Amino acid sequence: MIDFKKKLFELRDAEYAAFQAKLTPTVPAELFIGVRVPKVRALAKELMKTAQSKTAEAGAMQTAIDKFLNHLPHKYYDENMLHGLLIAEIKDFDKCVEVTDKFLPYVDNWAVCDIMSPKIFKKNKTKLLEKIREWAASNEVYTSRFGVEMLQSHFLDEDFKPEFLKIPAAVKGEDYYIKMMVAWFFATSLAKQWEATIPYIEKKKLAPWTHNKTIQKAIESYRITDEQKEYLRTLKVKEK
Length: 240
Hints:
By secondary structure, this protein is mainly α. It contains 14 helices and no strands.
């Protein structure tokens, strides 16, 4: 049987492990193997390419991938990164959602959460929106964060509708990583859909911290005009 953990250790960079641990404080430092993201991504693509090929190794590789995706929880952060990147390569929408739903309860940090961006999602927007509503409403921090991130990735451009802004606005919770995701969403929405989004800031529909962080992130964006930035500065609120 193919040992994915062994493959990750073969790509280990101890200095990078220490660096990554500092950026991801919710994960104990000893759980970082230290594989750089481009190398994990390349490994995921290589494994999935073999599984989807017409070679003699395809069946064994698919079996190994399925076993890895079903064997939860993983011990190492890097295993979770590989897991998320393998999910991104799944070409069947329903299977991708099924595997994502199984994995999300075990996601315990922002980096693994944010690395998951399944390619097949953009081809199934109607079904995806239903799942986004479910994920965003979750009481689990990273499940909710993932839902808001998928809304940001897929529904702020040609498929945008003003009503979609209600989804992240309804997200509650005091965890930094979900509040930051909601602020990031609204800052991006201000850049892409100003007219529909600015009422949420003017009418103070977000919690004070999220409101001010949204303004901060929007002001930092090159996609927001100087005039818009000046106006946003007047809308800051006092936090308790």
